[in-house]
Design a protein that fits this description.
The chain has about 140 residues and is an alpha+beta fold. It has helices at about 30-45, 85-95, 100-105, 110-115, and strands at about 5-10, 15-20, 50-60, 65-70, 80-85, 130. A four-stranded mixed β-sheet has the order 3-4-5-6. Strands 1-2 form a two-stranded antiparallel sheet.
Length: about 140
């Protein structure tokens, strides 16, 4: 157990108080949303047909980036898609309940379906990039 002094800190309203070890508190919505994305992607990967190549959280750029390889039943990927999830827009979309898990779930089913490669979308180093939500 820590020997640091625990303080009562009121954050959002005077009626809600929590025991916190430190007085500096960082907003965790982004990390909770990223965690929900990763749990969803891991579940999709376990079903088969796709593999998560990379996953990054770039809070300074307001983005979560996921690169996914789609295999179907083949041994080589049929397509590689890169997704940029714009955090501020996801947060606005989930504003009714402000739930980071709900915000992450908005596009997970789209990721399971497979690559949506259009003729006007040119790959960058073999990766087709899509922004979600769109601009």
């Amino acid at each position: 157990m820590s020997k640091r002094h625990r303080k009562r800190i009121s954050q959002d309203s005077p009626s809600i108080e929590e025991d916190r070890e430190y007085s500096t508190v960082f907003e965790t919505w982004t990390l909770e949303c990223a965690g929900a994305f990763l749990r969803g992607l891991a579940s999709l990967q376990n079903r088969g047909g796709l593999r998560v190549r990379s996953f990054e959280v770039l809070p300074n750029e307001d983005v979560i980036v996921a690169v996914i390889e789609y295999y179907g039943n083949d041994d080589v990927p049929k397509g590689v898609m890169g997704y940029r999830f714009i955090l501020s827009k996801l947060r606005i979309m989930a504003d009714d309940n402000h739930d980071p898990s709900f915000a992450a779930s908005l596009y997970l089913e789209d990721l399971a379906v497979g690559p949506d490669i259009s003729a006007e979308n040119e790959p960058v180093d073999g990766v087709y990039w899509i922004n979600r939500p769109g601009f």
